[in-house]
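Render this sequence as a predicted structure.
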Amino acid sequence: MFPIFYSIAMLIILPASFIISLWKAPFKSTLEWLLDLLVTTALIVWLFQAGNWSWVGYYVRFLWLALLIVTIIYSWKKVSNLPFTIKYSVNQKFSIGIYIILILIFGTYNALVLKSYTVAEKGIELSFPLKNGTYYVGQGGNQVLMNYHQAYPGQKYALDILKLNTFGTRASGLYPEELNNYQIYADILYSPCNGKVVDIQNDLPDLPPPKSNPENPAGNHVALACENYDATIILAHMQKGSVAVAKGEKVTAGQILGKVGNSGNTSEPHLHIHAEKDGKGVPITFNDRFLVRNSLVR
């Protein structure tokens, strides 16, 4: 249940509390208002980029931006005639210090998030392995705040991909145990390149969330050696019995590999894909796009 409470707290309660504060706080000077504005804006922009919005709805993040703009306009009308500074009490000075600390913290977060959008290494160009839907990157990018895989050298630049419904959420319900309630479950996976199958796993069970199998991290999977690239592409957490290729078989881009499942060390149904060379992760791109968290592929 922790992911549910965490998502609601971070993506709903936290931004709401900061926006309400900016809207209603009894500012005595425009400096106090400006500092509150900078903190709130930095927070909303950080959450807009780095929050995993597939839990509460992808489009909710745009609502917070709209509310922020309305709040800025409304609150400015209330403080526009105030002096820029006043003689502050000890408590007010303490509050100003807290504002400055929060600006530095959220500003640093935003700077780190911006780093995640680019990569110095040349990426391996692949065809997107899913079709017929709106797909959402839950983990992706070149920074741990956007992609926890960055902490693991062998999975660096890995992507965790979900599928969104009409409401912009990845499932019917917040964290259902029924696998079919997840939009991506049983979606067909297609080969992202021409190449050769170098490894498969096909007999591990699909587990109801939040159960996982850390002893078999990739679960059912297909590993490919793509033509023209000296790296192995791994598509993980596939559905039991769905793998449609054999080890040693040659495949072409767009050929069916199997289906998305929930096997291995996984929190819920999704596609994990990464490229690995000599034990280190390699960037991957689709149509020359380096995907990061909150990227959509339609």
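Summary. The longest strand covers residues 195-201. The two ends are 30 Å apart (CA to CA).
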